[in-house]
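ok, trying the design again with the full structure, not the truncated one.
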């Protein structure tokens, strides 16, 4: 299995299923795809009829490959485990947010755009420091979660799940190095 499909399998442990929790800022979601942010995704017309339609699995995979994996150039990240972590958290906190966190760690221009400068700096840094990078990235993500909850106390209900995601990701990564 390639890194994208491994990453997708891991992602769906957190983002699987259908949800319409009014407390969730993403609103109605299916396997992590928010109708509020991606209203034109073709899977919504199927979901409106049948949440269990087998065609949805392929549509979900295509969506995540095109909208997240490819846009973050993750096939070009030299460390597949790092690529999978970036994918997981880009879905959770957004591509621009995860990119800014990566750029802050790498001390490159913080513009939220994952381009050649960020990619090259990431690959160079992770050649010998992938553990350090992942550690700092996950701390950055935790800091964002705390900021979200401090800004909007209704989001506190999600904090434990978010932190569990970070902890499980960290331990999973530690087993690969």
């Amino acid at each position: 299995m390639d890194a994208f499909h491994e990453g997708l399998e891991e992602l769906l442990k957190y983002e699987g299923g259908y949800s319409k929790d009014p407390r969730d800022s993403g609103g109605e979601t299916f396997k992590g795809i928010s109708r509020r942010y991606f209203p034109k995704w073709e899977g919504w017309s199927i979901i409106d009829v049948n949440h269990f339609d087998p065609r949805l699995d392929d549509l979900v995979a295509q969506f995540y490959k095109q909208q997240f994996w490819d846009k973050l150039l993750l096939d070009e990240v030299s460390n597949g485990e790092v690529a999978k972590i970036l994918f997981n958290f880009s879905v959770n906190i957004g591509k621009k947010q995860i990119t800014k966190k990566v750029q802050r760690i790498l001390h490159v221009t913080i513009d939220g755009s994952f381009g050649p400068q960020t990619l090259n700096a990431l690959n160079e840094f992770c050649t010998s420091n992938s553990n350090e990078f992942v550690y700092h990235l996950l701390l950055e993500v935790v800091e964002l979660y705390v900021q979200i909850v401090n800004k909007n106390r209704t989001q506190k209900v999600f904090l434990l799940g978010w932190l569990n995601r970070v902890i499980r990701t960290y331990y999973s990564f530690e087993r690969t190095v």
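Keeping the full-length input from now on. Residues 72 and 114 are 6 Å apart (CA to CA).
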